[in-house]
Design brief:
Blueprint lengths: L1 E2 H19 L7 H8 L6 H13 L5 H21 L9 H7 L5 H16 L4 H23 L5 H7 L8 H17 L2 H4 L4 H20 L15 H13 L4 E2 L3 H21 L7 H20 L7
Antiparallel strand pairs: 1-2
Helix pairs in contact: 1-3, 1-13, 2-11, 3-9, 3-12, 4-6, 6-9, 7-8, 7-9, 11-12, 13-14
C-alpha cells in the first residue's frame, strides 16, 4: 500500500516546479513573485529527492542498484531525446552531461544514487557531516556567483547552474537526508505538527525575503539553494508520511512525474500562442490532460514515466 498523503504532496510539488519555471506573478507582483519563485517553490525538488532517498534505503544489493540505475537512466535518455529540439548548439555537451533544463534532476539523482550506495554502510554521523559539507559547498558557490564577488570568466563559471545545482551539491544531500530518515526510523519516531510545518516553510519564505531585501541579490537571478530547505523539506515529508491514509493506486505519483517531465513542452506551446485571455487556465488544463494521457501510455510503454 502507498501513502496517499505523500502522493498528493508529489502533485503539489510538481506544480511548485511548474510555477517556478513560469516565474509566477513576476509581472504583476514582482516582490511576491520573488519570495515564491526563489523561496516557497524551491521546496519542490529537494522534497522529491528526500522521498526518493527514503525508498532508496531498500536498494541494498548490487542487483537492485543496477535495476534502479537502469530505470533512472532510461527515463533520462528518453526525455532527453524528446527535448533535443530545444537544445542550444553551444550547450550540447552540458545538456548531455548535466541534463537539459529540468532534466538535471534525473541525471543528478542517477549519480547521487551511486555515491549514496557506496556510502550507505557508513555511520549516520559521517553521512550527515558529508551532506552538510557538500550542501554548504554548493551554497557558497551559488552565493559567490549571485553576489558577483569575482569578475570575468570566474564569475561566469560560478553562475552556471551546473556549478552548484548538480548531483554532488543538491541531489546527494537531499537523497541522503531521505535515506537517513528511513535508516534511523525518524518517520516512526517523529511526527511533526502542522504548526511546525508552517513555521519551517515560513523560514524558507523569510530567507528568500532576506536575500531579496537585505542582501540585495539580483531579482532576475535564480536561487536554488537555501539553508532553510535543510530544515523545511524533511519536516514537510515527515508530516505527510505520518498521515495514515493509504492507497493501492500509483496514478497520483505517475501524474506528478508526468507533470514534472512534460510541463516545459506544454509551456513552450501554449505561451507561444499568445492567447488573449485565460492563458493560465488553458495551460494548466492542457498540462493535466497531457499528463493523464502519458500515464495511460506508460501502462503500455514502460520507462516513459
Amino acid at each position: 500500500m502507498r501513502n496517499l498523503a505523500v502522493d498528493i504532496l508529489k502533485i503539489i510539488l510538481a506544480f511548485f516546479v511548474v510555477f517556478l519555471h513560469m516565474h509566477l506573478l513576476r509581472d504583476s507582483y514582482p516582490s511576491l513573485s520573488y519570495v515564491l519563485v526563489n523561496g516557497l517553490f524551491r521546496i519542490g525538488v529537494p522534497v522529491f529527492l528526500i522521498i526518493t532517498g527514503y525508498y532508496f534505503y531498500h536498494v541494498d544489493d548490487i542487483n537492485k542498484l543496477k535495476k534502479w540505475l537502469i530505470r533512472i537512466f532510461l527515463l533520462y535518455a528518453i526525455w532527453s531525446i524528446i527535448y533535443i529540439p530545444f537544445w542550444k548548439e553551444d550547450k550540447v555537451f552540458i545538456n548531455i552531461l548535466f541534463g537539459y533544463h529540468h532534466l538535471w534532476y534525473l541525471i543528478g539523482t542517477f549519480f547521487a544514487g551511486i555515491i549514496l550506495f557506496a556510502l550507505k554502510n557508513k555511520s549516520p554521523q559521517f553521512l550527515l557531516l558529508t551532506i552538510l559539507f557538500l550542501f554548504g559547498c554548493g551554497y557558497m558557490i551559488q552565493m559567490l556567483g549571485n553576489l558577483h564577488y569575482f569578475t570575468g570568466e570566474l564569475d561566469t563559471t560560478l553562475n552556471l547552474f551546473p556549478s552548484y545545482r548538480n548531483f554532488l551539491f543538491v541531489c546527494f544531500p537531499f537523497l541522503g537526508i531521505g535515506f537517513l530518515i528511513k535508516k534511523l526510523n525518524i518517520d516512526v519516531k517523529q511526527k511533526p505538527s502542522l504548526l511546525l510545518v508552517a513555521g519551517s516553510v515560513g523560514l524558507v519564505v523569510l530567507e528568500a525575503f532576506l536575500n531579496y531585501k537585505v542582501i540585495g541579490l539580483d531579482k532576475k537571478e535564480s536561487i536554488d539553494l537555501l539553508i532553510s530547505l535543510l530544515i523545511a523539506c524533511p519536516i514537510v515529508f515527515l508530516y505527510c508520511k505520518s498521515i495514515p491514509v493509504k492507497t493501492d493506486s500509483k496514478i497520483l505519483a505517475s501524474i506528478s512525474t508526468a507533470i514534472y517531465l512534460v510541463h516545459p513542452l506544454i509551456m513552450e506551446w501554449i505561451f507561444n500562442l499568445h492567447l488573449p485571455s485565460f492563458e493560465f487556465v488553458i495551460f494548466i488544463t492542457v498540462l493535466l490532460i497531457v499528463s493523464l494521457i502519458l500515464v495511460l501510455i506508460n501502462r503500455k510503454i514502460k520507462y516513459l514515466l
